[in-house]
Amino acid sequence: MNISNTQNLPGKKGIAIVTGASAGLGAVYADRLAGRGYDLILVARRADRLEAMSQRLRTKHGIEVKILVANLTERKDLERIITEISANPNITLLVNNAGNATLAPAPSLNDEQIDAMHKLNVDALVGLSQVALRKFLERDSGTIINVGSVLSFQTIGLSAVYSGTKGYVLNFTRGLQIAAEGTNVKVQLVLPASTATELWDLSGVPLANLNQSSVMTAEHCVDAALAGLDQGEAVTLPSVENKQLWDAFEAARTNLFAATQTGKPASRYAVESA
Fold it and tell me: Could you tell me if 163 and 155 are in contact, meaning their C-beta atoms sit under 8 angstroms apart?
């Protein structure tokens, strides 16, 4: 069966493309979306893991799976995935999950570590989101899920650069949501807190060092995120019980911005003339 021609078959929802699909949240997204009737395009660097996963998902869910081995920090690989999204009209959902983290005080990070975070967390996500949004708006249907982090709105001593990249994801995704207003295109921002994935050990902060009571499983995180998507949430914080906390944060941000819209210095900055 040609994966490019499955959208109109009974029970099929088109194709979901998932980045960072070989482990962690991406692997769970792939499984859950396959269970919802999507065929899949799985993107990651590790061919062996992608192949094993594709075989497992085909057997478990009876879906079609295409694997694209790519390092999204490499421009040529990113362009291949951008072309795939642009050329395949049956892609109906994009999960921008791939991410990179090196958690250390900013002065200790080298240029390569900083560049890797920017290229994957920002450049790849923006490039894929832009082409997907254009295609989805043309058809007036489709879904983009951008995986950010609670460190997008909070910085700790080890996360200056990582928080900066995730802050970009937060504001960029909110802008995409404005661009999609009044259409049938959905854009969801997911902001996980500590989640049990390989990213921690790769980041330089071992998962074992965290307070385990604050660590969510990848399965619970994705299931909560998809429940939020089903409920129409623009922003989903899987671990936050009181949704009003986000509402208050948004209201404070909006009020603060409104307060900036004056051409006069605040009175506390007034300088008495001689």
Answer: yes
Q: Tell me if 263 is assigned to some domain.
A: no
Q: What are residue 146's DSSP bridge partners?
A: 96, 189
Q: Are 140 and 183 in contact (CB under 8 A)?
A: yes
Question: Is 201 a residue whose pLDDT tops 60?
Answer: no
Tokens of 167: 């802050």
Residue 191's domain comprises 3-257
Whether 271 is covered by a domain: the verdict is no
What confidence tens digit (pLDDT) does each residue in 146-173 have? 999 999 999 999 999 999 999 999 999 9
- CA dist 102 → 45, 70, 112, 135, 232 (Å): 18, 20, 11, 33, 33
Does 19 map to a domain? yes
Model pLDDT for residues 40-98, shown as the tens digit of each residue = 999 999 999 999 999 999 999 999 999 999 999 999 999 999 999 999 999 999 999 99
Collapsing DSSP to helix, strand or coil, 68 comes out as: strand
Query: Count of domains in the chain?
Result: 1
Contact call for residues 211 and 221 (beta carbons, < 8 A): no
Which CATH number belongs to the domain containing residue 237 in this structure? 3.40.50.720
Residue 192 included in any domain: yes
Buried b (16+ CB within 10 A) or exposed e, 33-71: bbeebbbbbbbbbeeebbeebbeebeeebebbbbbbbbe
Q: What are phi and psi of 188, to 5 degrees?
A: -115, 135
Residue 12: is it exposed, middle or buried by C-beta count within 10 angstroms (0-12/13-18/19+)?
A: middle
